[in-house]
Write a structure and sequence with these properties.
With 87 residues, the chain is α+β, with helices and mostly antiparallel strands. The protein has helices spanning 7-17, 24-29, 79-86, and strands at residues 3-4, 31-36, 47-53, 56-65, 68-76. The chain has one domain (3-86): Roll (Nuclear Transport Factor 2, Chain: A). It starts with a strand and ends with a helix.
C-alpha cells in the first residue's frame, strides 16, 4: 500500500497525538471500518478509517490522490469511537 504525507504535518501530528503519520499504513491495513468526514467542506473527500494496531483502535484520516493514500492525521480513537467500532 502506498501512502504519502507532508513532513511538516507529520511533525505536528507527532506533537499533538504522539504518533507519526507513517502509522497510517498499519491502520489502513487493519481497517475494520471507515466513514466520510463531512463535518465541513475540505475541498476534497476525507475519510476516517478505523483499524486495530497492537490491540488498540486508531483513526487515520486520509484522502485519495491519483490512487495514493494521502494521510492527514493519525490518532488513538476516542472512547466514543471505541464503543461504536468495537462493540
Amino acid at each position: 500500500m502506498e501512502i504519502e504525507f507532508d513532513p511538516a504535518k507529520d511533525e505536528a501530528n507527532k506533537a499533538k497525538h504522539g504518533v507519526s503519520l507513517s502509522a497510517g499504513v498499519f491502520v489502513l491495513e487493519s481497517q475494520i471500518g471507515e466513514e466520510v468526514d463531512d463535518r465541513q467542506d475540505y475541498g476534497e473527500e476525507r475519510i476516517n478509517a478505523f483499524g486495530l494496531v497492537e490491540g488498540r483502535l486508531f483513526v487515520c484520516t486520509y484522502t485519495r490522490r491519483s490512487g495514493v493514500f494521502r494521510v492527514i492525521s493519525v490518532r488513538l480513537a476516542s472512547r466514543q469511537e471505541r464503543r461504536r467500532w468495537l462493540t
